[in-house]
Amino acid sequence: MVRHSLIVLLLFLASCAAVAQRAIALADENRTLPPYRNTFNPADPVRQAKAGILVCGQGDSIRSFSVFNMPSSAGLPYAEICNKYQRLLPEGVQVYCMPIPTQGEFYTPDAAAALTHSQAPAIETMFAALSDSVMAVDVYSVLAHHAAEPIYLRTDHHWAPLGAYYAAQRFAALAGVPFNDLTHYDIRSVHGFCGTMARYSGDARLKQHPEDFIYYVPRAAEYETTFVDYTLDRQRQHAVRASEPHAGSFFKAYADGSSAAYCTFMGGDPYFVHVSTKVGNNRRLLILKDSFGNALPAFLFFSFEDIYVADCRYFMKNVVQLVRERGITDVLFANNMDHALMPKTIASYEKYLVQ
What we know:
By secondary structure, the protein is an alpha/beta fold. 30% of the residues lie in helices and 23% in strands. The strands form three sheets. Strands 4, 5, 8, 9, 10, 11, 12, 13 and 14 form a nine-stranded mixed sheet that branches. A three-stranded antiparallel sheet has the order 1-2-3. Strands 6-7 form a two-stranded antiparallel ribbon.
């Protein structure tokens, strides 16, 4: 009996080591990005709109996105804050760095090539500056591979839930946790969705060609969601008061034609959210994110025992203390490239270490 137990233990340890080595190998591979060339809409006509926004295509293929003009060195502070969290968090906690490209990276027509820069050099600089103990999550390559699919919203500045699904799948592989594909989800749609870019760009054609907002609700997943609501200041820049924790629904239903459909996930940003699942694998995830990260947690309900979600703009706790109190094992930085390179994002993450 003792010999059998010892063999079982050795097999289990070998399995854990194999998973760890595979994850490290994947992370190492992710430090250099493959070249990307837009073959989806390279010939689309382009119009420069307000606020540094480009509108390309026409009819039901029209889409809009912001230009990107940051130097590659702008990725260094984000890498440094990830490294700092890895150093300061308790031993055994794994930090992951997931910079999320915005859609201009994949859908800029040739006619606008001189108006915006590639985000790849900044991401590569970021990954190269990460310490060996921080895992780089390369969703750039994954999204590039699926660029012909509706992974970004045409009329909104966010990615589509399908893009978040592919990113979550990549992250789960690195983290060595289970992951259920889309056959385990029910598909829901909000028809006639026209998002933020119609307002930001001032281009009326976007309203004339809305899209379907398609999202995925996990089927047969057992989970409970708890919210802490944040009251914001008059400028809606900072949280000034927190509510008591209360139960709520992770998914919020919106009627067809709603322009707020991306708030399907947790109702939006100014909340601290805890999702408790029945996975039972003793893995607990903290996602530090902007609004792009809102679409990630639902794809991880089969992967982690607990998921905590904190926005990079609205958080009132000390992260190190939170990680210790809740037994968090994994911390994922998931910011779109615009937010990842903002000094105020880095300043917020610095504050969360000391407040």
